[in-house]
Amino acid sequence: MSRPVSSSQIPSLRWLNTLVIVTLITVTVAIAYLGYYYVGAGNRSQATWFAPELECRPLSERCFTALGRFGEMQAQWHYREGQLSVDMVLDGLEAEQVKAQLEETGSHPRHTTITLASAAPGHYYGTFDFPACGSETQRVRGSLVVATSRGLLGSWYDLSLPCR
After folding, report:
1. Cα–Cα distance measured from residue 134 to residue 146, given in angstroms and rounded to the nearest whole number
2. Do both 70 and 87 map to the same domain?
3. 92 and 157, same structural domain?
4. What's the average pLDDT block by block, 10 residues per block, for the chain (164 residues)?
5. Alpha carbon of 100 to those of 16, 25, 42, 75, 133: distances in Å?
6. Rounded CA gap, 15 and 17, in Å?
């Protein structure tokens, strides 16, 4: 024989049911977001951004960036005599086009975009002409955007260029 439910237990059961439903909805939304971002990331109109590895020093070494489940990119930036060049290796996916963007800050903000040339399958390079600056260092943000069949995938690099 079952025990009758007292009236004091009914509100707590309703409260518990509400908490369970809210938790399930939250978990479902989180899984959908992560699934979109890591499995279905990338679209044609807006880039999906992936952070480079921690302790990345793009002017002195190659920086590794995992592009979700799609592949990976390794990039190194070189600055010499007013020119900033980028060398990028893409692994795990094919690029239709690779663009590099440079955003300068300071007293004369500027935004420049170039299309990287293909040196070999999965290997791209390009060079920015960089005017002389008036301070000791010039801070810029360089970014690489890869157009693939999965959409636009990108990464960014904060650079501190020496001015001479």
Report:
1. 33
2. yes
3. yes
4. 63 87 95 73 74 91 89 92 90 93 79 93 91 75 91 90 75
5. 53, 40, 17, 11, 21
6. 5
Distance between CA atoms of residues 43 and 22, nearest Å: 30
- Tens-digit pLDDT profile for residues 104-140: 876 667 889 999 999 999 999 999 987 666 677 788 8
Say yes or no: 84 and 135 in one domain.
Answer: yes
Q: Indicate whether 95 and 138 sit together in one domain.
A: yes
**Domain span at 27:** 1-39
Whichever domain contains 115, its CATH number is 2.60.40.1940
Whether this prediction's pTM lies above 0.85 is answered by no
d(CA 158, CA 155): 10
Report pLDDT digits (tens) over 55-65: 889 999 999 99
Q: Output the six-digit token pair for 119.
A: 């040196």
Q: How far apart are CA 46 and CA 44, in angstroms?
A: 6
